What we know:
Elements: H1 2-8, H2 13-32, H3 46-58, H4 66-82, H5 93-105, H6 108-129, H7 136-218, H8 223-249, H9 270-276, E1 283-289, H10 297-318, E2 322-329, E3 333-340, H11 357-367, E4 371-376, E5 382-389
Parallel strand pairs: 1-2
Antiparallel strand pairs: 2-3, 3-5, 4-5
Amino acid sequence: MIHGLRRLLPRRPRAADLVVAAALFACFFPGGRMALPGYGPGTTSWPGVLVAGVSSLAVLWRHTLPRTTVAATLGCAMAMAGLGHLLTVLVIGPLMVALHTLARLSDRTTANLFTGAGIALLVGTSLVAGSGGEPLVLKLLGPAFWLLLPTSLGTTTRLRAAHLEAVRARAEHAERTREQEARHRVTEERMRIARDLHDVVAHHLILANLQAGSVVRLLGTRPEEAERIAGELAGTTLSAVRELKATVGLLRQADESETASGPTPGLAQLADLAASFEAAGLSVTVTVEGNPRPLSPGTDLTAYRIVQEALTNVTKHAGTGSAKVRLRYAHDRLGITVTDHGGTTAPSSPAPTGGYGVIGMRERALSACGRLLAGHRPQGGYEVATELPLPPRIQNSLA
């Protein structure tokens, strides 16, 4: 029965208020007859019953008018003190309930202000018009204790509710943040895969297209040369299939512990990359300055892809037969420069529309905490320059 009542009352707040008001009014009858030891039992007069009824009814508006309810119940409590009743919890229960609700619904300052005013008024009323036989200590400490108790409990309830609300808000924010982070990571991964596919497809298809054109052009006049280029064309397409398989194979991995389906390209394969452009009529010169140092796998792949894309753009747009790749190892950075001298039959810069090569190179450099600049050279031609961070040197010291 009690559990059923607990489930029913929260669904009907007005009924719950009526139950509380009736219980407070019923408590007045034994409370109004209480007296100090040595004094006869008190009497319940009709003015006291009337004041108790008004005070109990005022509790019905404690949620909508908490300050007004406190003022009304405080006035009734002062009237009880003036009528000579002991200010026990059974007598000033409506005031205690009103103060608890005020502390729960308002701020700490308001609750403390009303509580302090209530204590001062009740103590003053008890001293001036209260029962003459009541000890002074009881007149001073009784109202203070009974009014501070509900205010403290109401403030604690409000703070706990605010804490739970803050926890819930943080949980919702964390959930939204996780969803946004997941979408951000998915977008970054899509962009990374798009860059890889663009670099692989653009590089090998451009070479294959140039080699196929050379085969068609030389087939009638120089069949031996055409046959050699056709063999290189087969190698180019096979290399394209191999790199595409390695890139797409990353999408099929069940977890990160699985190994990739092929070796990851890096600057160690730079000589092979430069040689692959010879069949397309582009002579690539590679120079290295400083002491070569190992790079992290991500930076190594980024450097390789930037050089690959830059040389592919030279093949597509520059109209020249030579390009230079310079690697410059400094204290903490690797500088990479790809330059061409341009030509007379085609512009040396990438096409102004429809190209993502320079954008992709710049995104790769930024993803490796580096930077990239690309543009025309004053003396002619085009240049792509990037700087990538190097891992710190490990100093070996002898004990």
